[in-house]
Every structure is written in structure tokens, then in C-alpha cells.
Amino acid sequence: MSKHFTKPFNPIGWQGSPHDFSGDNNLGIYATEATQRFVYGTRYLTWDGRVYKYANAGAAITTAHVDYAVYWAADHRSDWYQALPAAITAGDTSVLVDLTGGSSETCDEDELAGGYVFLMKLALANQCIRQIVGNTKNVSTETIIYLEAPVSHAFTKTTDHFEILANPWADIRSSYATGTTTTTMAGMPVVTCAASSKTWIQTWGICRGSWVGPAATERSLYYHANGSFAHYADIAAGTDQVAGVCILPGTDHSAFFMLQLSI
């Protein structure tokens, strides 16, 4: 188990772009590989403000998918809402949790790194949210999670509860093939990759994508459920997601846009 992140996680600036270990050419964020080099969700910032997040592809991103957004896949860990199996003392940096009742009750060592735990009291006072930096491989259904910072309040066994959100960047998938009105777009892929590959996803700044031409006055940019861009007149109220703004609005539109999802 790990009481601290076991892989690099600090934001990466343009002075030290991610190194490509896959071959002779240093393709940086445009390379994919099987080996995990960073904590999922690690942020890379270019000199002009484009932002990319390190992610694991839960399914292949093919040539048919690269102009469509990826989404955070349905997180089988998010239904881990349970009573605390042991008391927590203020100042603790580790928490024993029981995964019984989730759609998966197994957890490998450090599988939850980069995720979050929400601790809540019965009276809904003194709530506490912390990032998870590591965890033990669970025995039966119990595992110990290690936190980014100490817990600020005491919590009572059985009476109080916890909820876990696994690292959302640990499973991203193309919306082109499987997106629905209930999936949330995470960003734009920069290259094709095989399932389980480690890749970078753009979340902010100038990018391009599949697009339906707007009216001359359109500037706002949205996502359809399949990850393609749409203008305001073409969206379905309540089901499409804000994506950013057009750089060159009008019928002679460019395929380049200002993506505005996550910085």
C-alpha cells in the first residue's frame, strides 16, 4: 500500500513536457503506451494555455473517434456508500472502509489513488472530503485508504458514513460509440489508442472536432451525446453540455474552437 502517491502528479509546465518512452521520437503528449507514468488526472499546461489531463483509455479510441469527445465512464466505485466500519479520530490520515454493496467489492493496491472520499456525519455537520493518495489491496471487502491531509473531525463507527469516488481519469471512453444523454464529456482525445493505453486528453484551449455549421451570430459551443460539437439552435435542452466558444463564428466556420472544460 502507499501512504503517498507512487507516481509523479505535480502539474507539468511547458518547460518540462511529458517524455515519450515509446520510441526514438519524443512525441510527448501525442504518444501512448501501456505503462502508467503519472497519477491519472495529472495536468500538463502548454505555454499558450492549453491544458491536457493524463488518463487511461477504458476502450479503444480509433480514427473514427478522434474528432469526438471522450467521457468519464460510469464509475463502478461511486456506489460505495456505506457505514464506517471503524471510528475515525481527528487528525487521522488513513481510513478503514468496507466495499460491501458496491458493484465491485475488490480493489487492487493503490487502485483508488487520485480518487476522493467523502466522510459524513449523521447530523450532516462537519463533513469532510479528502483526496485518496493510496490504498491497500482489500482483504475480504475491507481496505485502508490513505488521505492527502488529516481528517478534521472525529467520525463514529456505524453511525457515520463514507462515499468513494474513484479517479475519474482512470477510465475514459469515446462518446462516438457509447455516449448517451447521461454521460459527461471530459475532453478531446489527441491521438488514437488501444484499450488500456495511457494517453493525454485535452480539456482547455484551442482544439478541433466534429462540427455542424452555426448561424452567423452563433458563438457558444455545446456537446451532443455522441461527443460532436453543436451550436445553440441544434442542442437538446437539458441533455447537451456546454463545451466552450467558437473562434470564428459564422457559416464559414473553422473546425478550431476554444475548449473550456477543465483547467
Can you walk through the features of this model?
Helix content is 2%, strand content 31%. With 263 residues, the protein is mainly β. The chain has two domains: 1-74 and 168-263, no CATH class; 80-165, Beta Barrel (Elongation Factor Tu (Ef-tu), domain 3), CATH 2.40.30. The strands form two sheets. Strands 1, 2, 3, 10, 11, 12, 13, 14, 15 and 16 form a ten-stranded antiparallel sheet that branches. β13 (220-223) and β14 form a beta hairpin. The longest helix is centred in the C-terminal third of the chain and has 4 residues, at 175-178.
Overview in brief:
This protein has one helix and 16 strands. It has one helix at 175-178, and strands at 43-45, 51-56, 70-72, 80-83, 94-98, 116-120, 128-135, 142-147, 161-165, 172-174, 185-189, 198-208, 220-223, 229-230, 241-246, 256-260.
State the helical fraction.
Answer: under 10%
> How can the largest sheet be summarized?
10 strands, antiparallel
List the total number of helices: 1
Radius of gyration: 20 Å
Q: How many discrete domains?
A: 2
What is the percentage of strand-forming residues? 25-35%
Structural class of the helix and strand makeup? mainly beta
Provide the succession of SSEs.
EEEEEEEEEEHEEEEEE
Shape: globular
- Overall mean pLDDT: 82
| Number of DSSP-assigned strands | 16
Low-confidence stretches: none
Alpha-carbon distance between the two ends: 30 Å
